[in-house]
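Backbone-to-sequence.
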């Protein structure tokens, strides 16, 4: 099985001859016009905008996603074809089960550590490496619970 798209959401340029459309993409259109704070973005055009691609998956409130890694190693078969996403605001790692372009499950790990997650990577040894976001940040080597 090949890896899914590198992003779970995407947006096309909105300016297609519309003089009121922004001339560059609005990054927060991925969250349907809601900023990280939960407040509406004034220039947002709503949830479904003609000319944009709809997300495969979305959160109604942004977890402030950061690093993302698709697990395709053989070290931990129970993690095969899962997507690991760091969450700065929610202070955990989101684990999504992926089948092609479909998200079939959504769970969280490492929430008990109460750390903002800056990056997530799969190492050549098949372990998951998680980097925290603070002045004295930590690098964790993670494996599934026994």
């Amino acid at each position: 099985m090949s890896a899914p798209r590198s992003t779970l959401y995407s947006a096309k340029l909105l300016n297609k001859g519309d003089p009121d459309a922004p001339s560059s993409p609005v990054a927060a259109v991925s969250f349907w016009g809601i900023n990280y704070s939960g407040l509406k973005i004034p220039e947002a055009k709503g949830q479904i905008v003609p000319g944009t691609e709809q997300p495969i998956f979305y959160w109604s409130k942004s977890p402030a996603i950061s690093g993302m890694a698709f697990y395709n190693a053989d070290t931990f078969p129970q993690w095969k074809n899962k997507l690991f996403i760091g969450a700065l605001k929610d202070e955990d790692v989101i684990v999504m089960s992926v089948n092609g372009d479909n998200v079939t499950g959504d769970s969280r790990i490492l929430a008990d550590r109460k750390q903002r997650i800056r990056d997530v990577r799969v190492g050549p040894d098949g372990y998951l490496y998680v980097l925290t976001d603070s002045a004295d940040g930590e690098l964790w080597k993670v494996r599934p619970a026994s």
